[in-house]
Design a protein that fits this description.
Elements lengths: L10 H14 L3 E3 L8 H10 L7 E6 L1 E4 L2 E4 L3 H15 L4 E6 L8 H13 L3 E7 L6 H4 L6 E7 L8 H11 L2 E5 L33 H21 L3 H12 L4 E2 L6 H7 L9 H11 L3
Parallel strand pairs: 1-2, 2-5, 5-6, 6-7, 7-8, 8-9
Antiparallel strand pairs: 3-4
Helix pairs in contact: 1-2, 1-9, 2-3, 7-8, 7-10
Bound molecules: NADP nicotinamide-adenine-dinucleotide phosphate.
NADP nicotinamide-adenine-dinucleotide phosphate binds next to helix 9.
């Protein structure tokens, strides 16, 4: 919803996608102040509108764009300023889950947690969470076990290599896992083939977005082929099978999905109301392991 760097988007379609999500029973929305430099929060606030009390909004702070550079800042004074700007953009007086987007590597965790506790006591946030945490960082956060409701990391059938971090951090912190890149940035929807290509202003054109390049793309397409018979037998879409894998593989997880239009959320939302059998889960686990 940041409308920048992820291909063509249209504000009307984004608002309709939010409306469709609400209609289908989606009640959890993830955003961040840095997405589209505020654009994502503005659109989400508009899209949710009068349904605010029916939904859980998670936003993040700590990644700043400054003089054309990206910097990380978790200082208590900045957290407060960032949250006020987020509340204004979302047109709300509280954020349900306020998340440290990336640890800045310098601010002591007790200062961050104390500020978040203060903001909670003022009623500006209800809960807080972490994002992009690995096992090496655990000693920083474990003194606050039980404080963070969500830990957000990349995980999907196309990204199993950080699974140990995903599981170990959530378990050590007593948090629920929230996954990003749940559709492998789109490759798991089955619409991209070996010749996947993107315009230069779409981040996925860069080699760093490994899912769409070289050997990794070929491996991802094999995973898609393994999902296909499951989707057909279940009369589901490939994207809904990809999300089902996350929800069934990681207990009590939240799969965050990026969508641009109402048809995309309708397609993904077919993940609701069923589960993969243990055989289906095993076959997807095997094909995607080590990839
Ligand atoms: N904590 C963090 O550091 C972090 C980092 C990244 C993302 N996130 C969060 O996670 C969200 C999503 O993650 P993501 O951007 O990494 O990607 P994703 O959910 O893995 O993939 C999203 C992309 O897949 C395509 N798509 C979605 N539904 C589809 C459908 N039904 N049919 C066909 N294509 C479909 C769309 O792109 P096309 O139509 O262009 O293919 C969409 O932009 C973000 O919006 C953000 O909230 C968090």
């Amino acid at each position: 919803m940041g409308m920048y760097g992820w291909g063509k988007t249209n504000e009307r379609e984004l608002l309709d996608a939010i409306g469709k999500a609400l209609e289908l029973g989606v009640n959890f929305f993830d955003t961040a102040d840095v997405y589209g430099l505020g654009q994502s929060e503005r659109i989400l606030g508009r899209g949710v509108g009068k349904r605010r009390k029916d939904v859980v909004i998670q936003s993040k702070f700590g990644v700043r764009s400054f003089d054309g550079k990206t910097i990380y800042d978790n200082s208590p004074s900045y957290i407060r300023v960032a949250l006020d700007a987020t509340l204004t953009r979302l047109k709300t007086d509280y954020v349900d889950v306020y998340v440290v987007h990336y640890w800045d590597g310098v601010t002591p965790s007790d200062e961050i947690v104390s500020e978040l506790e203060r903001l909670r006591s003022e009623g500006k946030i209800r809960y807080f969470g972490l994002s992009n945490v690995n096992m090496a960082q655990l000693p920083i956060w474990t003194p606050f076990r039980g404080s963070f409701v969500t830990v957000q990391n990349q995980f999907s059938l196309a990204c199993r290599d950080r699974e140990q971090d995903v599981r170990a951090t959530a378990s050590a912190l007593g948090s629920n896992v929230a996954t990003w890149g749940s559709l492998g940035q789109g490759v798991l929807t089955g619409k991209y083939g070996e010749n996947a290509s993107f315009p230069a202003d779409d981040r996925r054109s860069r080699e760093a977005y490994v899912n769409f390049h070289g050997e990794k793309l070929k491996k991802n397409l094999k995973i898609v082929e393994a999902m296909r018979p499951i989707a057909e037998a279940r009369d589901k879409t490939l994207s809904s099978v990809a999300i089902r894998f996350i929800l069934d593989a990681l207990e009590d997880s939240i799969a965050i999905v990026g969508v641009k239009r109402p048809d995309q959320i309708a397609d993904v939302a077919r993940c609701m109301g069923w589960s993969l059998s243990s055989e289906e889960l095993f076959s997807l686990d095997q094909i995607s392991k080590g990839i």
